[in-house]
Every structure is written in structure tokens, then in C-alpha cells.
Amino acid sequence: MPAEEQVTARRSLRERRRAAATQEILNAAERHIVESGPAALSLRAIARDLGMTVQALYHYFPSWSDLVTALITKAYDDLADAVQAAVDTAAAPAPDPSRVLVAIEEYRRWAVTHPERFQLIYGTPLRKYAAPANGPTTQAMIRMSAIFQREMFDGFTTAQLEAADASALSPSLRSHLEQLPPHGLGALPPPAAALLLSAWGHMHGLVVLEVFGHTSFLGGHQAELFRIGVRNLVKDVHSRIPDADQV
């Protein structure tokens, strides 16, 4: 084997070993979160469980904040993967309003199945942690939000979305929405962006109430109440978008 290929092979092996070690650390950190909650996350405890020193762990995650960033990014990505997989297997082809309901149902299912990881990304912010500006956590969140944006408005034209009834946006709010980055909400006309944000807040609020135990008095009926609420929510959003022949 030529020397250059030998170097490439050795590097590839090192990279594979590093990736495996990184994944093992993340798995251990997720177990700690499940057992003790996000606020109790400790590099020392993780290193102890893995039989390594904290100094060795620093080779993979230079700081506690770096580990938290990786965990939040992974949680967002796992949630997005689950929602996308549910949409991909939906019976109805796009565009169809039932697909966004499938996405919303899977969002709730993942959250109630992984409550501690859901709390990591949507619960009380961890003290002394600040996500890097426009870093991997932001990109992961944008990716997940894009799924709902696509499924909520798939099949509608830009003209329809511009003419949507968003209860008379104020000039200042419209201007602010127009100045958002061209990815995510910035790709939508302001009325559609406002409707999506409102719908997201209502849907997410129902999930948060359930994950944090505030609707436990409903027992096994929580899923049914959620389903009723989000169906009405999606129906309301779509009713505010005029037909194509009206714009």
C-alpha cells in the first residue's frame, strides 16, 4: 500500500474511533439527563461512568457547554428525524392537510416518550449556558421548523399566503417579519409567518403542558384532547388562506 494510502487509512481509523467515543459520551450524558434531569448534567459523573478521566473527556468536548450544545443539537435532530420519518410514511401524498397533522402527532409522541430530552431543548434554560450564535443548535432548530412550515403550507401559492388573513398585522410587525433571514420564517410572506408562529405556539403549548404533567388529570384522554385541539388549529389556519382563484 502506498504511503499516502496508509496515512489515509490510519486517519480514517482514528476518525472512526473518535466518532465511536464521542457517541458513547453522548449516550452516557443522555442517560444522566434521563435519570437526573438536564440541570444535573456533570462532566465528572459522565467520565466516571465511562471509566475515563475528565481530562480525557475534554479531548472530545473541551467544555461542559460544548457537551450541552452537542446534546441539544442531537435532541433537535432526533426529533426532526422522527417527525420527518412519520411524514415520509404518511398515507396521503403531498400536498394534503393530513400530513401536517401526522407531523404534529409525531412531535407530541416523541416529546412524551423522551420528556427529559424534550425539557433539555424546551424547558428551563440551563444556568451558565448560552447557545452559540447561529451555531449547530440554531441550524438543528431551523431544520425541524422547516418540516412544519412545508407541510402546513404545501400546495398554497405565494400569492395565497400573502393574502392570508392574519388579523391585520401592524406595519411594524410586518416590517419585522419581512426582515427575518431568508431561511425559515423569512421565506414566508408576513401573514403566513404570523399564522405559523401562532399555530406553533398553540401546538407547542399543549405538548409542554402534557410533558410537564399539567394535564395529567385527563389520564388516558390527553392524546384525544391534543388531537382535537390541533385538528381545529390546522383547520383554522387553512381557512384563513384564500382559494387560488380569489387572489
Brief overview:
The chain is mainly α and 247 residues long. The protein has helices spanning 3-36, 43-50, 54-57, 64-88, 97-113, 115-122, 136-153, 158-162, 171-178, 190-211, 222-239.
How would you explain this protein's 3D organization?
- The chain is mostly helical and 247 residues long.
- The chain folds into two domains: 1-62, Arc Repressor Mutant, subunit A (Orthogonal Bundle); 70-246, Tetracycline Repressor, domain 2 (Orthogonal Bundle), CATH 1.10.357.
- 68% of the residues lie in helices and 0% in strands.
- It contains eleven helices and no strands.
- The protein is globular, with a radius of gyration of 22 Å.
- The mean pLDDT is 91.
**Series of H and E elements:** HHHHHHHHHHH
Just name the CATH architecture of the largest domain: Orthogonal Bundle
Q: Number of domains in the coordinates?
A: 2
Uncertain parts: none
The total of helices stands at 11
Largest β sheet strand count, sense and barrel closure: none
Any chance you could write out the topology, listing elements then pairs?
Blueprint: H1 3-36, H2 43-50, H3 54-57, H4 64-88, H5 97-113, H6 115-122, H7 136-153, H8 158-162, H9 171-178, H10 190-211, H11 222-239
Helix pairs in contact: 1-2, 4-5, 4-6, 4-7, 5-7, 5-10, 5-11, 9-10, 10-11
